[in-house]
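4.2 Preliminary Data

To establish feasibility before requesting continued support, the project team ran the inverse folding procedure on a target of 356 residues. The structure was first converted into the token representation described in Section 3, and no sequence information of any kind was made available to the design step. The complete token record follows.
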């Protein structure tokens, strides 16, 4: 009996040492990569209220490639609160523009000065405040806005949307998503209340990994890639059925309610603008129904430039490179010019030969 107990304890100790060694190895690898490549270890940080947030004082200095394989330098930073740009809230002689969004406003694929909001700020001679976080849905954007709008007191608020926001606004859609599940606990808005859930099987295990264990998170994400995608996925259902798919119809309704909350939170005299990263007529309908000024020029300009052969995406094939950000800034320039009169309005053109 004593030998059996000693054997069991030895096994427990051996497994504990193995797990600890694995955890140290993964963390050591991340730190080494960060030091060698001059960037911080993680892009996100856990947040009790938001689920996660942009890592404070994030930095990346290095070379990335666009979707055509062309290299370009990037020097990206966030401040102590995760903002990509935080102007001077005390200014009186320039317009203050507040941008809220997801990964397209997080803009980690371009240098600070090349992000669309920075280009706009320079051309409009405006103070810019930009906070975007990869994977965020509309509720998280509202919560960010609520936290900072009083301090900034902007002259205009610009919300950047992405079509996958509908999925990220719904626990059911995100749980059954093939491409837009962020593997993190997030707030959802339902029946007038906010609840926190993690849209994965074994959510407690995933949450523990997100919060405490790089090794466990590494293993779970690799195992998740082997798991067959939901059939049919949320994306398939939305594409095939549209609003006749009940979960999507509910997500559209929730998104409208959240847009109403955004409009109510911003002072009545301050305009709220919205644009979407690709064509999505439902966003225009929801924005206009809730007193938000929709800017349709962005997806149109992107589609036209792509049709002419322009390379607008970074190496991931989804997010904008320098040329994409400049084009988006140009598409927003005239609609936002009324907020910042006296800006510079020369056109920015994109040709097939342009590279970041």
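Position-by-position output of the design step:
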């Amino acid at each position: 009996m004593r030998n059996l107990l000693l054997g069991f304890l030895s096994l427990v100790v051996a497994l504990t040492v193995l797990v600890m060694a694995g955890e140290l190895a993964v963390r050591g690898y991340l730190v080494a990569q960060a030091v060698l490549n001059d960037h911080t270890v993680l892009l996100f940080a856990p947040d009790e209220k938001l689920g996660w947030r942009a890592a404070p004082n994030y930095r990346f200095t290095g070379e990335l490639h666009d979707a055509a394989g062309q290299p370009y330098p990037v020097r990206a930073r966030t401040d102590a609160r995760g903002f990509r740009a935080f102007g001077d809230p005390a200014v009186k002689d320039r317009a203050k523009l507040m941008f809220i969004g997801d990964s397209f406003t997080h803009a980690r694929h371009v240098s600070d000065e090349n992000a669309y909001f920075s280009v706009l700020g320079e051309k409009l001679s405006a103070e810019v405040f930009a906070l975007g976080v990869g994977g965020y849905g509309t509720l998280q954007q509202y919560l960010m806005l609520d936290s900072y709008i009083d301090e900034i007191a902007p002259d205009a608020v610009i919300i950047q949307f992405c079509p996958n926001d509908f999925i990220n606004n719904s626990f059911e859609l995100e749980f059954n998503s093939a491409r837009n599940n962020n593997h993190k606990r997030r707030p959802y808005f339902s029946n007038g209340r906010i609840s926190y859930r993690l849209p994965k099987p074994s959510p407690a295990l995933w949450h523990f990994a997100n919060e405490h264990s790089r090794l466990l998170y590494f293993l779970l994400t690799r195992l998740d890639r082997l798991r067959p995608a939901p059939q049919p996925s949320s994306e398939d259902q939305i594409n095939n059925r549209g609003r006749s798919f009940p979960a999507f119809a509910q997500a559209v309704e929730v998104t409208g309610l959240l847009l109403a909350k955004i409009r109510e939170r911003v002072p009545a005299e301050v305009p709220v603008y919205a644009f979407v990263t690709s064509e999505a007529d439902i966003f225009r309908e929801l924005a206009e129904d809730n007193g938000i000024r929709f800017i349709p020029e962005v997806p149109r300009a992107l589609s036209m430039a792509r049709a002419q052969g322009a390379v607008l995406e970074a190496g991931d094939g989804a997010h904008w490179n320098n040329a994409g950000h400049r084009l988006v800034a140009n598409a927003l320039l005239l609609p936002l010019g009324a907020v910042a009169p006296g800006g510079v309005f020369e056109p920015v053109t994109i040709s097939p030969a342009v590279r970041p």
